[in-house]
Amino acid sequence: MTRYLALFGSINVGGNRLTMADLRYAFEREEFENVETVVASGNVLFDFDERPTGGLEELFAHMMLDRFDIDSFVAVRTKEEVRAAVEDNPFVGGSDDKFVHTHFLAADPAPDRFEVMMRDYATRGPERVAMGPRCLYIDYVNGVGDSRLTAAFIERRLGCRGTARNVRSLARILTKM
Q1: Cys-Cys with 42: which of 11, 105, 119, 157 at CB 3.0–4.6 Å?
Q2: What is the top-level taxon of the source organism (predicted)?
Q3: pLDDT digits (tens, 9 = 90+) for 118-156
């Protein structure tokens, strides 16, 4: 069995309220093992046979729509991928870690799309951004709340959905994995 993390976007924001007990129950009904939620924002740990994560992402997105009527992006990562999301983030330790995020993406964006996003954002704010494997590393410098580098901005420019977590949360999740 492999330990996985499912990161749900759009949970408990914008009217998409869902209890973590209901989310755990949905996982258990699908026969995933050792299901545990971490923080009430759509982080689910579970065990399952080793397999490509893309199929799991599609399954969970369908489950959210079918059972809860929530259109959610879902990123599934292994323990090693979560560790890399923290350790490979070039902004960790250089800024307050609550402002440093890994934005998990559905796919690797084309490099030219990343360049367009960076060009379009160049004068909008102080954030620092770097590409990683199926993710962006972001230092929000002054915090996420006032940033103009939003998930919608990123999605439009890169052409793929994503969901972000700060590295403090990811480190806490990693210890539970």
Answers
A1: 11
A2: Bacteria
A3: 999 999 999 999 999 999 999 999 999 899 999 999 999
